[in-house]
Amino acid sequence: SFIANLPEYHHIFSTKKALQSQLRQAGTPSTSWLPFAYDPDLHYPVPREEGADVVFIGTGAQERLHWLNAVAKLPGVQRRIYGNSWEGIKTPGWEQQPAVTGKKYCQAINGANVVLGLLRAANGDQSTDRSYEIGAIGGCGLYQDTEEHRQLLPDYPDEGFFADPTQLAQRVKSVISSTTLQEDLRSIGSKAIRKPEHTYAARLQTIIRWAEQ
């Protein structure tokens, strides 16, 4: 019924560029890309409290295991997952925790030496809400190497991106061994993200401007 109703909408905003052609094929009269964003009232810097070496925050999915397993092979690294739907999914070497919200969410990101920015291939992701939230909170993010991530973080060093599991493990090892690199990634990431144009308020204005045309 959702697919059948698509032609009834005047316009559909999608957070995924990859869906544009599918929406048109389904009969959507008009569609455009609306990037993810962050909320300054929810995603903000907090005093740092020591956390895990590596943190991943996200919903459980089998497709993410090859990334997590690559990091799990690193010796002497404390790894922690926060999120729902990990029950029944084995993640050796990773401590599983429930989803976190509010200030605890900010503390989990800011307290980690590295926060993984993994995508969902099944969703056609090139970026996610976490891509914005990590930098907004002041976290040290490692992101999958995509065009959207590169555009979002134009001054980010190559050490902050990874293209495959082997490179991810290498990047994690390099970053957690260098506090200087960690601080550089935190600083560059926060400077790139904490801008009015990356907030949900800005996204709402985009929608309103379209409606007023």
Order of helical and strand elements: HEHEEHEEHEHEHEHHH
Count of alpha/pi helices: 9
Shape: globular
Q: In whole angstroms, how far apart are the ends?
A: 29 Å
What strand order characterises the main sheet?
5-4-3-6-7-8
Strand content: 5-15%
Taking Cα atoms only, what radius of gyration do you get, to the nearest Å?
18 Å
User: Which segments are poorly predicted (pLDDT under 50) over 5 or more consecutive residues?
Assistant: none
Helices and strands, with pairings:
Blueprint: H1 2-5, E1 12-14, H2 20-25, E2 31-33, E3 54-57, H3 65-72, E4 79-82, E5 95-97, H4 102-111, E6 114-117, H5 129-137, E7 141-144, H6 147-152, E8 161-162, H7 165-176, H8 179-193, H9 200-212
Parallel strand pairs: 1-2, 3-4, 3-6, 4-5, 6-7, 7-8
For the structure shown, list the relevant keywords.
213 residues; 6-stranded parallel sheet; two-stranded parallel sheet
Task: Provide an overview of this structure.
This protein has 213 residues and is of the alpha/beta class. The protein has helices at 2-5, 20-25, 65-72, 102-111, 129-137, 147-152, 165-176, 179-193, 200-212; strands at residues 12-14, 31-33, 54-57, 79-82, 95-97, 114-117, 141-144, 161-162. It has nine helices and eight strands. The protein is globular and about 55 Å long.
